[in-house]
Amino acid sequence: MQSTSSNASPLVQFSESLAQIVEQVGRGVVAVHGRRRIPSSGVVWRQGVVVTAAHTLRRDEGIEVTLHDGRTVGATLAGRDAGTDIAVLRLANIDLTPPAVGDARSLKAGHFVLAVARGDDAASHADSGVIGSVGGPWRTWRGGQLDAFVRLDGGLHPGFSGAALADMRGEVVGICTSALARGVGMLIPRATIDRVTEELLTRGRVARPYLGVGTQPVSLSESWVTKMQLASNRGLLVNSLAPDGPAERARVLIGDVLVEIAGDPCGGFDELHAALASAAIGQPMKVALIRGGERVECTITLGERPQRNGCR
């Protein structure tokens, strides 16, 4: 005798509900062919617009996407933002319905979620897990701002960067990425995607100020701390300069140690990013450096960060 849905075990009902979520969300998930070998995934975010993980696109032209019905169509890159790892693609004359969306801020550690991707075989692929940890707004190591910190409980399978992450309501709360934290998957929240997508569609880029320096944290000797009355024994060693960048034009040198920015101590990347986040392109910013054992001050006029540049 076959069991009916009314007397099926809770596990069978739960399994069926997961399959329904994957099927429902999967209609709005595409495979993105923007690199060699394994495609990444993307999500239909609005009519004619797909969002994906920027780090998976190895080219700006010749990008294609495979839809849920098996069709493969061309896509145009509207823009990418390395800071938040978001890229936006345009699809011409393609009628697709975006999946229902939810709020990543409703997630809690331990919540069960589903990642829905699309593979090279045009089929939906799914992975399940729990939310590892959550927090408030988070600045990435690339200088972008995520509206919420949501860490998944492990790494992502190949092709799952750009995949939709759905809660148990079947609502997409964002897309997955493996590029913002080492060894674990992270969520790019819906609110961040909405904000960055609008700017990329309008301007083609996200404009952020930068100094034009590559740095690494260093410890300062107690004699330097005492001599210069520093608030911290930490600083940022300048180990590279963007050619003709803001810092180089202000005569900053490789080997200088950045200890203050805009009048506040700068002992690490968080302080540097916080100062730049509240600044504007073209704004003069006073910095204090240690050079040859002496304190040196200069003013750097902030420039616009190039889209592909490792300097801050």
UniProtKB/TrEMBL annotation:
Residues 209-293 form the PDZ domain. It comes from the Bacteria. Transmembrane segments: none annotated. GO terms for molecular function: serine-type endopeptidase activity. GO terms for biological process: proteolysis. Keywords: Hydrolase, Protease. The keyword Mitochondrion does not apply. InterPro entries: Chloro_Bact_Ser_Proteases, PDZ, PDZ_sf, Peptidase_S1_PA, Peptidase_S1C. This is 2-alkenal reductase.
